[in-house]
Amino acid sequence: MYLNLLHSVFNTIFVMIFQKVLISPRIFQFAIIVTSVANMICLTMIIHNYWGQYREIKSKITLSLILLFLVFMVQNFIFTVYFLLYLPKNCIDIIGPLLFLGCEFIVLTLFLRGVRNQIS
């Protein structure tokens, strides 16, 4: 009986901590902002590399890629401002943008690695 009571108390404390701290929308909001800023850093590096290529060889494809990455930069800036000003009520509303930004970060880092290998 004593072990059941102790287990119940620890279980209740763990659930309270898990609900208030680990599943807090603020943590996900922070993760979205950090991921969005990391995406903007990657985009800045990619744009810088492609701008150098564009100055050497005037190519419409390179210019189109620069414009595409600038659109992604604006999108990440809007995400950052939006989630700085707005805290969703629950975590379900944050999971979608966080997954989107995480996948975008993976693609941008792979793209940046390809651009770095191409220049070297």
TrEMBL record:
Keyword annotations from UniProtKB, A to Z: Membrane, Transmembrane, Transmembrane helix
Species name: Methanobacterium formicicum (strain DSM 3637 / PP1)
InterPro entries assigned to the protein according to its UniProt record, in alphabetical order: DUF8036
Pfam families: DUF8036
Keyword Transmembrane applies: yes
Name of the protein described by the UniProt record: Uncharacterized protein
Transmembrane segments: 27-51, 63-88, 94-112
